[in-house]
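Aim 2, interim progress: modelling of the nickel (II) ion-bound target.
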Amino acid sequence: MKAYLNRRYRFSASHRLHSEQMSDDENRATYGKCNNPHGHGHNYVLEVTVSGQVDQNGMVCNLVDLDDCVQQNVVTRFDLENLNYRQEFASAVPTTENLCTVIYDILKREFRQAHLERVRLEETLFNSFEYARTEGLNH
Ligand code: NI
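Predicted structure of the complex, ligand included:
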């Protein structure tokens, strides 16, 4: 029997949406207030979904293992950071879409105890982003 496990985590980080490839005017036109030079912060809610066969213990995976992995590799890495200065965003604008794919790739690499289905990131009460790579395709 296959089952899905959803787990939520929280971290806070700041960012400024700004691309070095564009002029200041183009940046302002593209990102609006999010291009403000001083940046702004978000209290992100991260939802991770994993799946797998329910084992003899009645679980998809051990929640402690998932928590340890996400804490070590995602929450500790990004909490109270300015995303613009992180090496993960050295060549990408730290939009929440891009943050979502970065987190997905980290967890795909680091979490082996169950199948990573998707990563969902709430930026505000009103918007959230999801990422799940299609199996067998290079994106
Ligand atoms: Ni923002």
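The radius of gyration is 17 Å. The mean pLDDT is 95.
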